[in-house]
Each structure stands twice: as C-alpha cells, then as structure tokens.
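Subject: for your reference before the review

Hello V.,

The reviewers asked for a structural picture of the protein, and I figured it would be easier to keep everything in one thread rather than splitting it across files. Below is the amino acid sequence we used in the manuscript, unchanged from the supplementary table.
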Amino acid sequence: MLNLNKKEIIFGVIVGLIVAFCLTGLLPGSPLQLNKSREIYKQAKKYQNNNDFQAAYDTYNKISSSYPAYNMVLFQESKCAASLENERTAIEKLKTIISDYKDSPIAALASYNLAQAYIRIKKNHKAEKQFAYTIENFPKTNFAIGSYYYLGELNQKSNPKLTQQYWIKYISLSPDGRFSHEILHGIVHNGTNFNTNDKLVIGIALFENNYYRRAYNFLSAVPLNKSWYYLAKSCERLGDHKTALSIYKTGILKYSSSFDESKIEESMRAIVKLNGKSAIDSWSDIIGISSKGKDFAFYNKAQLVPYKNAETFYNGIIKYFPHGDYASESLWKLFWHEFNKGNYQQAISLGRKHIDLYTNKKASPKIMFWTAKAYERTDNKHLASVFYNKVLEDYPDSYYAFRASGILKSLHFGSDNGWKSDNTDIVNLSNTKSFMPYSYNEFKDKYGVEVAELASVEDFDMLTTLNLKDPFIDSWIKFRSGVYSKSIVLARDGMNDLMPKPKASDNRWKLIYQIHFKDVINQYSNINNVNPYITLSLTKEESYFNPLAISSSNARGLMQLLPGTASDIARWKKLGSINSAELFNPAKNIQFGTAYLGQIKDLLNNSNLFAVASYNSGPGAVKNWLKSYSGEDMDQFVENIPYDQTRDYVKKVFGSYWNYRRIYKPE
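And here is what came back from the structure prediction:
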C-alpha cells in the first residue's frame, strides 16, 4: 500500500484542481476562457453599434479582468457609460486605464477622453490639466493635437490671447484638421498682434482650407523666402497667373532650399504650364534658374528632345545626381536604346551597373529582365537563367516575373505559353471575410497583445482609432467595410515599399489581388471565349472593383465601358438596347465588357496580348503598331508600344493575371 504524507496529499489535490480547471476552461487565461471573453466582447460590440448602450455595458462587464485586452474593455465600458450620461462611471474607467495601463496603446486616447468627460461635467480646471497631461505624455499623437484645440476653447473667454496661441499651435500641426475651419474663423475675425510666423501658419491653413484670397492676404505679409510656394499657389488658384509665374520663378531661383523636393517639382510643372512658351523652352528656363531639383528638369527636357540630345542629359543625371530620383530611369533609357539597336554587350554592361547601384526602383525588375534577355541573345543561357530567376526572387509580383517564368520554362522545357491562356479556366476561389493580414502572433509581435485581440474580435472602430499607420491593417479594415478600391490602393502601396517581398501564401497579397463578382465573370467569360482570369485582371485594373466608377471620358462601371462602345457591342452581338445607367450594373457591365474583349480578340489573331492592348488604345492603333513591327519577340513589342498609358496598362493587366494565378494557384 502506498503511504503519502499530508503535504504530498495537499500538493496532489492542488495539481488535480489546476488540471480540472484547465480542462473545463475555468482557469483565467485558459483557451476556453479566452474564447468565451472574445465572444462576449463581440456580442457587446453588436449592442454598442446598435446604440443599446445599457445592454452593451452589462455585457462588457461580464468579461474577466484576466482578458489580455481588458484595458480595451474598460474603455468600451467608459464609452457606453458616457452615452448613458453616467459620467462618474466613465471617468472611473478612464482613470483606471491611465493608472493601471500606462503603456497601453489606448493610454493617450483614454487621457483625451477623460479630459472631455471633465468638460461635460463642468470641471474645466481638471480638463485643462488632463489635456496638458495628454500633450506632455503623448506629444506625437493626434490626441495631443486635438488637446490644443480644447485648451484654446476652455480659455476663450478668460484669456483670448492664450486661446490664440493654442489655436495657432493646432493649425501649425494640422492645417486642414477637424477643427481648422472653426479655428480659422475665430482667429481671422478676432485675432490680434500676429507675428510673422503666426501669419505664415494662418496663411498655409487658409490655403489648405481653400480660402485663397484670405491666404494671399496673410502670406503676402510674410517674407518671400518662407511663403513663396503657398503664395504662388494662392495666386494660381485665384487666376492671377502672371503673378503666380513670377513668384514660382523667384522661389525656384532664390529660395528652393526652403521647401522639399515634391513642392519644388510641383512648382516646376506649374512654370511649364503658365510660361506661355513651348515645353522644351520652359524646361530650359527652369534649368537655367534652378539649383534644387535640377535632375528633375533635365529628365523632363530629355523626354522632349531627340535621343542624341537626350543621351547627354541622361548621362549628366547619372554622373551628377546618382542618388536622385531620376538616375535609375535615366540608366534604363540608355540601356533600352542600346538593346533596341542590338548592342547587347553594351546593354549588359549598363544593366549590371543598374543592378549594382539600385534596389527596388521602378526600373529594377525590367532592367533585370532585359539584362537576362541580352544574355539570351548572346547565347549565354546560363547567365540568362540566373537573371530571370533573380527577377522571380526579388520582384515576384511584377509583370516581368510573369514573363521570366514563361521564358525559363522555354529555356528548360522548350515551351513558353507566353500570352496564351486556357479559356476553359474557372475562377474558383474568392476572398473570404475571415482572413486577416497577419496571424495572431504577428499582430502580437508587431503591436502588442491588445491589438492582436482587437483584430481577433474584429473591433475595426478601435483599430482605426489607434491609427497604427499600417497600410495592410488599414486595407483590411476597408476591405471588410466593402470599400474595395481604397483597400487595394493601400495594400498595393504598402507592398511596393516592402523588400524583400513576402511569400505568395502571405494573406497581404489577397488584399491587393481581391476577387469579386466571380460567378458573373466566369459566366460571361465562358460565353465570350475569354479567359476569366484575364477578365478578372482587367476589371481590377480598370475600376478596382468599384461598380460605380466613372472616368473623365465618361467610361463607366467595373470594366469602364463608354456608352457609345456599349451601344456598338449591343448591335454587333444582338444583345438588345442598353442605356448608360445600366453600365453601373455589375452583371450588365461584365456581360458587355467581355463581349467587347472577345470581339477584339477575334479581330487580332485570337491574341490575349493584342486584345488587352486594344481594350485600352483601340484595335486600330494596335493594327498600326503591328504593321510597323517586324520582329517576333512580343516582349519587345510591349516595351516599344508608343502610348505610355497602353504600355503600362498591358503590364498592369498581365501582372495582375500572373499574381492571381500565383496567389490562388488554380488548377
């Protein structure tokens, strides 16, 4: 018989209880308890969104204090209490967050809301202290900026001069912010004794809020070296082009160091527009007076002159501005000229120079691809393969990765499907609402457990309020809200900044290459003998899946059809009449868009490439290009399309086509 002493028995009982608690999910922090807290949070949020604040408060109150994002629960309780006009409870909850969760991502928000709660109960002195605390402890947040507005409002009657100082500070930090209209109205009508910096800040804020005449009045009282850009812009908006041109030129000549590159370049473009001379002469004038941004001026002039002259500019940019924004593109221009002439060794030398000097530039994937082509043309298949593989490795989402993949198959297996596609394909997958841009642990590692929990319970309001400045989180929130166009743009721009690129299985790709209207795309692509992934890709690039999209030329809907083109399609295909409003109907638009795409594909040798190019430029233009092109290399044909817009369009559509197949891996 086993003999146990009293301590061993007690220890065994404790261990048994712990195991039992874990198995039943009763132990704080256990998986079952965690999931239970999440479900309660979601239910409470539903009540809150439906303005049933008492039910929401009572439901939040059921969540265990061991919940990893309990500070978020306290904040939601404070919001519900405030909505129920129970300010005492709201204040208690907010004070708990500030004292017990000092490092919380919502500490600044809690402090800001606490100050507002003090205003509501007429305790203005406490409110002032809390706003000051917010500014001191969270100076880089929007809540600090907002605090300057409220501090000004609280002192409006007792100390107007102090109010003016607070409000000028606000508009200096946020010239087009939420309170800027109200502040500007008060300052312009009641303000006094503005110093030079005050006038500059007020003038910029007036300009950003479209008060151009008032902006001019303030800015004209500021030394030109500080105000010239906004002063010239105000004159331009007021229609005084002569004065605007004079100020732009003076600013570029004397004071270009006072503004960043983007404003200098914008000013140069304005001079070209207002100068009353040819573009070549205008860029020559700018080159003569500019010190900052001279490479931008040289590059723009180079686009307008014969290559023999442009070559001098490109070489000068590379030599004297090697780290500027235009050296990479200049090197590409030199490279492409040599390649087109058949000078492959010279092209290889320039290509390798670019690869050594620059990473993740706009020209990087195409120079790498065409360097591989140059090696291929010189029968060096080994180095050609090396560089094609490098394109796939470094720029896996690019149009050039699509083409590199095809050519590698040709080099190794003797066949490159190129622009061909199987029209019996089916888009058999679609974006589900369940995926997140990051896994739970990735959220936790990047932003902390509270943010990971907010993502898990899908509290998009709080995630938005936190302003994490993560383009993929912002994109995900827009996607879940049905704002697909903005979602795609945010994720696309975020991915462009990443190097190296994530694997194709990474969910962030799905935010860029979304799938919508799958069934309609499959149906009408099949009817019109078009590959549905081509239709999907074209639709994405035309409208970013906005059924109500309308262009400056009146092209409408998902596939951006002109009403006249739609009428022609209806007549050709005997589809009956269609009015322009019907083009905003997704099914109608895709029906007519695929009918048009199939029609022009039939006219142009059943070629996807020529059909996509024609969709943008018209079949007449493509036929003319084909007449003047005697080569057999379709990659070179694309690169030499004379319309910049069409050339870029073809690359975008086939880049998307490649990515849809790369990410979703259809059979």
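For the response letter, the relevant points are probably these. Residues 24 and 139 are 46 Å apart (CA to CA). The mean pLDDT is 93.

Happy to draft the paragraph if you're swamped.

O.
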